[in-house]
Amino acid sequence: MTKLSNNIxxxxxxxxxxxxxxxALEVFRYQFEYNSLYRKYCQALNINIADIKTVTEIPFLxxxxxxxxxxxxxxxxxxxxxESSGTSGMVNSRHxxxxxxxxxxxxxxxxxxxxxxxxxxxxxxxxxxYLERKNASLVFMVDELIHxxxxxxxxxxxxxxxxxxxxLIKNEKEKQPTLLIGVTYALLDFADKHHMNLNxxxxxxxxxxxxxxxxxxxxxxxxxxxxxxxxTDIHSEYGMTELLSQAYSKGNARFSCPPWMKIxxxxxxxxxxxxxxxxxxxxxxxGAINIVDLANxxxxxxxxTDDIGKLYANESFEIEGRLENSDMRGCGLMIL
Length: 336
Fold this sequence. Notes:
This protein is α/β, with parallel strands linked by helices. Helix content is 30%, strand content 22%. The strands form 3 sheets. Strands 1, 10, 11, 12, 13 and 14 form a 6-stranded mixed beta sheet that branches. α9 (184-193) runs parallel beside α10. The radius of gyration is 20 Å and the shape is globular. The N and C termini lie far apart (46 Å).
């Protein structure tokens, strides 16, 4: 029986470049034993666990399994079940969470890595479509950031754009660092109504143009937001219901991951042809995106997504779109 030596859930966030592969292989063996769905998937592929020596040899579970199966490692009563958004008639992904403390540790440590001390920020969430449904992981994360910031103006704003404008103006006058994190269509609606010149506000889009008649590329969205809100860069978050970790871009279209999360590229015509950044023979490689998220210790840490993109030698990555015939995602990023 495989055990989590030295309590991996606590060691996940101490992972670094040197220890990543060893920890990932340990998590793989653990999930092979205690996740019956993943084990059956590996067995269907005739995987011999003893043959797996590197991360690129690990089987990656198709993300679609979160729509149709219960993806859990060990048996447990979930503290919460996160559910993805979806259009009418679609089957939403469901992610059962055994230990919310792991999710909190993941996004708080990542925020600190990219943006510093949460107590120095005012956090404003513009996520109307997510607030209107239950169990959105993005809302849970932003709500926790709002609470921990302890700033009087931190909070969620639905459709009261005038109040949001007044809040941002007040923060600007006070030179208060502010994070405005919003679903893309809501940010565009706000920016169309209120043109501003923001110097102390970081604007972050999370994706989400679903249901809009107007189709815009990310470059077009960000250029419009930059012009109307008077900011130099638009930041972006790459996350999804099936992950307990997030990657961030600070405006250059390239995302970076925390140390316990890694992006790999698989060939679109061969799901077992997988390349990590350390094996690139050119400056970048394009293909479908696989994700290792060690924070997913109690679900699935090795996921083959429906996104396509580029992986660079420094482990940064870009999102270029979606595989054909894949479902549209509420948090999905626009096609470039």
